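pipeline: protein-struct stage 2 | run 1193 | histidine kinase
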Amino acid sequence: MLNSLSGRFLILTTVFVMLAEVLIFVPSVARFRADYLNDRLERAQIASLALLADDMIDPDLERELLANAGVYNVALQRNAARELMLSSPVPGQVSHSFDLREAGPVTLIHDALRRLLDPEPRTIRVLGYPSREAGQLIEVTMDSAPLRNAMLEYGLRVFLLSAVISVITALLLFLAVRRLLVKPIKRVVGQMQRYAEAPEDARRIIKPSAGVRELREAEEALQSLETQLSASLRQKERLAQLGGAVARVSHDLRNILTSAQLFTDRIEVSEDPAVKRMAPKLVGSITRAVSLCENTLAFGRAEEPAPVLTQFNLAALVGEVLDAERLAIGDHDLSLSEDIPGGMQIRGDPEQIYRMIGNLVRNARQAIIGSGEAGEISVSARIEDDDWVIDVTDTGPGLPPKARDHLFQPFQGGVRKGGAGLGLAIVAELVRNHGGTLQLARSDAQGTCFEIRLPMGENA
């Protein structure tokens, strides 16, 4: 109970209400003391009227009048003459004098607290204005014990009333907070637990219904989060299913390509010059396809296998990429060029780097052919500090905004109609496997440039 939000709120409310009542209690007691003393002055003034009516009164009547007024003696100043009206023996000396004529709130509070904290009975003098302007000054001498007892009795009544008000107020606030805050919060927590049991089930997504604005905003934020999470989980499930399908297709495709590889072995022994020139490229392409299928089957996760690093000539590899792309260009007005130093050796996985450059060149070729305009694709390389830098530049139409927003995300960054949007995602993963970076250096109406940066490392 005490560890709950409503329980702690109940305790805090009770404490704060009691604190407020204490702040009210002190001035109330001071006001009560001032009223008590003014009442004694008024009673003393009434008692003195008997003497004004008759200069001589019986001593017993005088004692009775003083007892009814609760004072020892009464002095009244009228017409600039101060006169002792009623008197009786005073038990002890006067210890304090209190002038109610000019006393402010601070003085009244100070005197009241001092009286409450002093249990000793004392004789005090009190001065004030007579009621109904019956003189300039009235002065009485009285015992402080009845005053303190009356103040304690009044304070106890105020304290008990404050306690009752505090408990009732706290209880009402407790019930209000429990209904308006605690129950809606528990409902949200319960819904979150229910959603966590089956996050793929869109029916379990929260429906905002809170009347409190802040809680409704929290429910709306939770609804958005759960909607995105459910969509992400469904996408991952589709990707997992797609991975299984790719594995099955790769298995069958590997068998087909293995048969094609047997035929290429025979083509290599042909004496036809054109066949001799094209056969090595065909064999290389089929070998790469077989290797890719085997890697897909061997590596069942949605990742690329670790690169096998070797030293090789980059210009020769880029030449193979461009030769393969020239076959796909056909009669389109598209030229391919390279600007790579002939002796430039880099360290990396030749097959994966072939796929990096091949995917970028293929994307550029498809974009230019799709635009129906003439164009050019160039592959260049250079050495900067401790990196090999490869640029693939084209004069195509540039990337649309949607493709830039999801550039390296699979199934979302596709540009060509019917494309799966996997090319750049594959390139980015292959580059990361080499410890490098892939970035879009430029994309506008004049064309696009992708930059591959591969670290040389210690063995460069």
